[in-house]
Amino acid sequence: MDTRLSPAELLETNHYCVLATANSEGEPWNTPLFYAFDHNWQLYWISSTDCHHSRLLAENPKASAVIYEPPGVSHETSALYLSGTAAICEGAEIEQALEFYLQRTGLGISRNADDYQGDSPCRFWKLSPEKAWTLQEPEWQDNLLLDRRTAVDIP
To answer: With contact defined as beta carbons under 8 Å apart, do 3 and 74 qualify?
Structure first.
């Protein structure tokens, strides 16, 4: 019996993802992020404009993220992989991102959208997924365990 978490369960029960970015030459960079999400699986996070992944996204907006749940007593390893385009939230998107973030985190962050634009050192970012995958039932081949991914529809 497959006891993996569904994509919706993974998004809801986890608070961190790993964001993968790359420069224009393809040199990769990964960073863990605290995230919020919406009903279309768009991920939102706050980052400094001068951090490495923000500079890379300004150069190359293609990115991917993985949300991962290690195996536990009642379930197998679960993962949701998202691939798409990242962008700084602008205008009304900032208010929306702030609302999702505050609902999810309850952290003591600024509730003022002006603090995430203009001369502020921080921005709300959004990853808009274009493709998504989850882990499927692993396969054994010659005593080797092979992980497989299955494409899933983004709501």
So the answer is: yes
Check whether domain 7-151 has CATH 2.30.110.10, yes or no: yes
Any alpha helices (H) in 106-135, and if so which ranges? none
The mean pLDDT of 98-115, rounded to a whole number, is 86
- What is the model's pTM? 0.91
d(CA 65, CA 51): 17
Domain ranges for the chain, please list them: 7-151
d(CA 17, CA 25): 24
* C-alpha to C-alpha distances, 94 to 20, 22, 33, 51, 65, nearest whole angstrom: 22, 25, 18, 19, 21
- What are the tens digits of pLDDT across the range 49-93? 999 999 999 999 999 999 998 876 556 788 999 999 999 999 999
